[in-house]
Amino acid sequence: MKSNVLEYKGYHTKVEFDSEDLVLRGKIEGINDLVNFECEDIRNVENEFHKAVDDYLDFCREVGKTPEKEYKGTFNVRIAPELHKKLTVTAMLNGDTLNTSVEKAIRQYVEEKSALGV
To answer: How far is it, in rounded angstroms, from Cα 43 to Cα 12?
Structure first.
């Protein structure tokens, strides 16, 4: 099965089909600026994504703005209070910060999934 995730110049998008408007849509993921695109022909979707990224980079250059990079490394996570407490205590017992413990857990999860091809 082919992925509906595209990458170009370090930016990613997930292409989705809008069955109401009969178009393919995407937006650059992982940045605060809104950069999106759409097209009706699947053969043009990659080109439209490339144009959206290039237009974003050109716009930033024109206005003197540094283009945002994907995923700055910070995000909010909501978990059950009891799990939060257990994680915090475990982190302290191991001499880690809460952030370090979360990063270790995520890294282990991602590496396990990657090894499985997921």
So the answer is: 18
Is pTM, for the whole model, over 0.85?
A: no
Please answer whether residues 45 and 26 qualify as being in contact, where contact means their C-beta atoms are separated by less than 8 angstroms.
Answer: yes
SS3 per residue for the chain: CCCCEEEECCEEEECEEECCCCEEEEEECCCCCCCEEEECCHHHHHHHHHHHHHHHHHHHHHHCCCCCCCCCCCCCCCCCHHHHHHHHHHHHHCCCCHHHHHHHHHHHHHHHHHHCCC
Tell me which amino acid residue 55 is: D
| CA–CA gap between residue 56 and residue 11 (Å, rounded) | 11
Residue 1 confidence (pLDDT) above 50: no
**pLDDT tens, residue by residue, 29-38:** 989 999 999 9
Q: How far does Cα 106 stand from its chain's mean position?
A: 15
Q: Which two tokens stand for residue 16?
A: 């989705």
